Amino acid sequence: MTRIGGRGLRGCAPLAASIAVMVAAGGAHADGQGPQGSVLEGTAVPVAEGAPAPQLAQVGPAFRLDIPAKPLLAALADFTAATGVQVVQQSAQGLSGTSAPVSGTLTAGEALARLLGGTGFVHRMTGPGTAVIERVEAQGAVLLDPVMVQGQSMRGGGAGPVDGYVASAGVGGTKTDTPLVETPQSITVVPRRQIEDQGSQTVMQALRYTPGAFTGQVGASNRYDYVILRGFTDRSIENTYLDGLKLMGDDSTYSSMQVDPYFLERIEAIRGPSSVLYGRSSPGGLIAMTSKKPLFEPHAEVEATIGTRDQRGAGFDVGGPLGESGNLAYRLVGLADAADTQYDHAKEKRYAIAPSFTAELGEDSSLTLMGYFQHDPEGGTHNGVPAEGTLFARNGRFIERGFFDGEPGRETFERTQRMVGYQFEHRFDDRLSVRQNLRYLDSDVRIDQIYQIGWAGQSDLLSRYYGGGDESLQALTVDNQAQLELSTGPLRHTLLAGLDYQHRRTKNDWTFGSAASIDAFAPVYGSDGVTGAYGQKNTRRLNQIGVYLQDQIALDRWRLSFGGRYDWVETANLNRLTDVEKGENRGKLTGRAGLLYLFDSGLAPYASWSQSFSPNLYTGADGNPLEPTTGVQYEAGVKYQPPRSESLVSAALFHIEQDNVAVADPNTFVYRPVGTIRSRGLELEGRLQVTETFALLAGYSYTDVVYKTSPNGKEGNRPPQIPKHMASLWGSYGFTEGALENLTLGAGLRVTGRSWADSLNTRQVPAHAVIDASLRYGLGALGLEGTELRVNANNLLNKSYIASCLELANCYFGEGRSVTATLSHRF
């Protein structure tokens, strides 16, 4: 059985470009030839008249449907209205009777199979995007009055591959396969094609064209994926999820995880609180990544990359069915990559491999085993430089953006990640299914670095400090879900109940000390002068159990969703030098609700309310855990998806308040509470498939964040590292004929407004604009069928700018121009 939704995806050939249902005039011939032209031959399924039709699932976009039993022609009309399918009725002779009810999230093929159940008709897919409705009799199938269904381009369901730039559905916002236009929340899906076209080397870079997401928190550093959503800097390094499970790093240590985007099928930026489904998280939102998984079609791709800063890399992606049964498939993805950085003496290097295996265990069960193993021998640098010398002159001079404030012999960041897990799904029937997702993570981090801590008097020397550490982390996450489709009168429900568990243990041995100063304008390396070293040894533990319930209700064109969750969280921090352990146990109830209405025109206005909860993993100056943060958001917006269009336009207004926020002192790294932060703003986004070969992405966000209350005299001030205005525009155009056939050109503009450099609001980081470009050319005309050249240029004009400042002690240079060329071949 073919399945949609990322678990057991098979036969994912793209469907035709638009959907139209047409009741053909006259009869069709036994050879499949009808008055509307040729269709591919297929075999009808003999079913006795009046028997339920086979439940045939087809690959394609998923739709939320609510069609009660009614006359068959009327039901087909409702089907076309709900899915964007256009019906052209030239002859309806023979299509009589009453349909079966259809409700839930279904593809067009699944919906037709249910709708025709018991009518004496079945449908069969006769080619990519075509189907025929047939009358069936006890002795066999007889063709009568074919109904042609020409499907949309494959938009990937909620978690599968996306053909192009625009996805129709997602699973991150609801944990169910739900169309984006029907989800009362702001969600952006970045598909594989966009990641490649924009030359994204990290998940953070892949989100640069996403409204409401600021990715310049640490400038050109690629060590971690910092993504600030709706102005909340806390947890910006840890709000990442892979295949529905939290990447269990620990942002109070150096052990934060990272997944290379080469291994991802799509990335969802889910804005606003999502604690109801995921537990502890930021009120700004989260990032949900989907891995490449086995496909039941043979495929093989290899690629090689070279670029500026001595970048060189190679990757492969192979997979397909295993054996003759047709129930087994595998995928193996690998990557080796190395490069210098824009900072002197700092390099990056990565080796990663991800095997996966899918087994369809009969008609109703599937199991996918997944592994991800990554070793980063070199992690670049993560250091900032003072605002004096970057935002404004220091002794009449400015620091160069390639300045390295450490020591070549003392610059180590080595990280190893090992992850194994599985996704299991079983369907009891068309209404009830259960899922279990599990992952175990083991990682090691070794760090050795010297970094500046500010100017020494009035000189050109920067004082420096030393930090080193060895860390290990083990984590287990498991999410159990039960999904039930049911009806109560006119209401159609998609109920989701879940229980998840998260466990993490981090062991860290740290060493700190003073180091020799360095001239910021004429650096001389080779003498680190580390003195006064002292150590810290800690073991940190976290356990979380959460139970949640969500109901998505459809009533005609109304969509109502609400949910609740209760979390039990236990944290502990053992100081192994003093053998003193401090911790806390917390429980928290969170909820959310949303209401949306689908107009025939494609407009979908909505309003929602949601809460967040996150226990503080930090301790204050007294060594005691800080109070957990809580947040609440009110959001109102409108989405627009024109009928029979792949484009999606959205606008959202939001208001968020977060209490008990804690931030780290950039010099002492001691966390302190800062009270309540309020964020409100506007986000506009358009993801437009203008023509078959022209796609356009446009976005704008206005984010107004202030300290609403603060015990430190900052009330009314804006936090640093949060631009008030951001805008972006990206276009991609492919030539299909003439001398430029097989050439696709892309270009983009990213504009980032001013932000404050310190929480006292004494200095601002200037606005900046950056231009990106890409070229993709298929070499088939040169006799190299399956070979493609891709060239990416980020910051094409080599704009020099400061991306942000974490107070005045640490400002971060933006990334300069980088150009890469990738040659790939598909077998």
Can you walk through the features of this model?
The chain is mainly β. The chain folds into 3 domains: 20-150, Phage tail protein beta-alpha-beta fold (3-Layer(bab) Sandwich), CATH 3.55.50.30; 169-287, Beta Complex (Ferric Hydroxamate Uptake Protein, Chain A, domain 1), CATH 2.170.130; 293-428 and 443-520 and 642-826, Maltoporin, Chain A (Beta Barrel), CATH 2.40.170.20. The protein is built from 5 helices and 43 strands. The strands form 9 sheets. It has a 22-stranded antiparallel barrel. A hairpin with a 5-residue loop joins strand 19 and strand 20 (328-340). Helix 1 (72-83) runs antiparallel to helix 2 (108-115). The longest helix is centred in the N-terminal third of the chain and has 12 residues, at 72-83. The protein is globular, with a radius of gyration of 28 Å.
